[in-house]
Amino acid sequence: MLERIKKIFLFISLFLLFLLSDLIYLVPFKLLNINYDKLNYNLQVLCSLTASLIVSLIIVLVYRKYLKKCFKDYTRNFSKYFDIGMKSWFVGLALMCFFNVLISLLTPVHDANNEVLVQNMLKEAPLLSFISASLIAPFEEEMLFRKSFGDIFKNKYVMILASGFLFGFLHVIFSLKTPWDLLYIIPYGSLGGAFAYSLRKTNNIFLPITFHMLHNGILTLTYIFLTVI
């Protein structure tokens, strides 16, 4: 019981740090009486990226022994794990696409607002936004939503469902405009659940990190090549 309380406390601490990271870096601008909103957009993204890197470093320090152990295991079993990860990702991607199409056909909303925000960032600051969306965010999100949050649950099926829901919820709630937008929790949650399944299957966090990076990287690069370049 005590061990579980420690895991809950650790997740809440890291989760709050993750949520507040984009506010903490605004403090120096307030103290220096600098209008952050008037800064160059690339500089704004760089500030956000720096805050995310600091959070990632703290996560690495907290889980350094676990990450070291997982890395050794991942390199030894790469082919086997990659196959599991690929299958899980394809299932999650198929479900995500299916629910996205269903929502766009049956409701007034046609795009997830979170996707629109990311696309706008890629237009304004493609390189920095690519680094943030494809490298930093996948690491942070997998360590938080799959590892730290997942450790709270003993039942693997409950963990997969809860992790998927939290992942979907946080990708929707901060860009929420209408009640219909809440439906996008389902497609995001499907992908998050697939990543959670791959972690439970292998007990190695580097597997969902790898495919989360691949997923975001492919999407962001495709968007950059089609619209920015």
Q: Would you mind describing this structure in some detail?
A:
There is one protein chain. It is built from ten helices and no strands. The protein is mainly α and 229 residues long. It has one domain (58-228).
In short:
By secondary structure, the chain is mainly α. 81% of the residues lie in helices and 0% in strands.
Query: Which structural category do the helix and sheet elements fall into?
Result: mainly alpha
Q: How far apart, in Å, are the first and last alpha carbons?
A: 54 Å
Shape: globular
Q: Give the count of helical stretches.
A: 10
Alpha carbon gyration radius: 18 Å
How many domains comprise the coordinates? 1
Range of strand content: under 5%
Please, what is the average pLDDT? 90
Q: Which percent bin holds the helix content?
A: over 70%
* Main sheet attributes: strand count, strand direction, barrel closure: none
Please trace the helix and strand order, writing H or E for each element. HHHHHHHHHH
Low-confidence region ranges: none
Task: Count all strands and give the number.
Answer: 0
Descriptors for this entry?
mainly alpha
